[in-house]
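Technical annex B. To support the medicinal chemistry partners, we prepared a structural model of the target in complex with S-adenosylmethionine, based solely on the information shown next.
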Amino acid sequence: MTLTLLHHLDLPNLRRKPSGTVLLLVLQSLDTNANSFGEYRTRNSRVVLDPSDLYWLAENCPTLRLIYPDLDESFRASFHDAAQIMPFLTSLVASSLDWIAEEDRELIWELSSTKMSDYNSGFRSDRTRVLRIGTLEVELFEPGFDFDHLGLKTWGSSHQLCNYLVNHFGGLELKEPVLELGSGTGLVGIVLAKLGMSLLCTDLPPIVENLRKNLDLNGVDRVKVSTLDWTDPEASSVEPHSMSTILVSDCIYSSSHPKLVSEMVARFLKNERDSRLLLQVPIRKGFVKERDEVWGLIERLGLRVLLEHVSNGKDDFGESEFNLRCYGWK
Ligand SMILES: C[S@@+](CC[C@H](N)C(=O)[O-])C[C@H]1O[C@@H](n2cnc3c(N)ncnc32)[C@H](O)[C@@H]1O
């Protein structure tokens, strides 16, 4: 995919009345996910510039005129600094656009609002992320959310864990029954199911509906879903000491999590020689204490690290390091 970095001065000036086609083309090509992992399915329609649009661009936006003749569906434009794009998007939403036909005008307003939400880190609009891991392709619907519901988006941590699972599946010799804590959008469950395992994915009530939707989207029927709140495990239907494998990805991001997650491991992992815990954490600067605490608590349960794997990858906010530990009973 080509990603061209633009300057905000390259964008059409509304006072010069760009056509609806020019504005739609510019809006569709703005990539709000330049920093993320995977690709997003977009619903762009093919927009073709006519000679008068090309003339207008040559007169008013020479940089775009140079870029756009070669435009195809894979073209994407981004900005060094997201703040640069906001005045342009705001002016589109605020303008009457009365020189543009109603149908295009509505589309421009809709697209501008969506892009504004996407650039504004406090909220994200609905999207479908597509990940290719080895030969597997996974589609994950991520509904618009407001960062109170972190499980409605996929985190780089589960992507890294799945890369490891796909490449080392045979050697890990994971045994069923398998439980995942804090499954989010379901990536780990979908990948393990595609590798032939059955498992139980769990999360908080507001997250599990979308989790189920993603299992259906990927035609996966080996995965069961259940609510499991780590603060109230008695309320779940999962039997104590019933799981041979537990997977946890990016679930340590508050001071209460180390204790809660280690309690879930103590409660649900079988006390057998081939029981395994796979604990994947991103190495975020602000969470050194929580990471050390969870690793310490897990070892105090009587589990020991059988293997450790450090990887570099992406989260939606840029590059990150990730740590995976596979534990077994001492
Ligand atoms: C950062 S997300 C990671 C999601 C997914 N594992 C991934 O890596 O993409 C953390 C997940 O933990 C879940 N979670 C947080 N607190 C929880 C709790 N008390 N009980 C159960 N799940 C919880 C969230 O709902 C969310 O799905």
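Notes passed to the chemistry partners:
The chain has a mean pLDDT of 89.
The CA atoms of residues 249 and 280 lie 5 Å apart.
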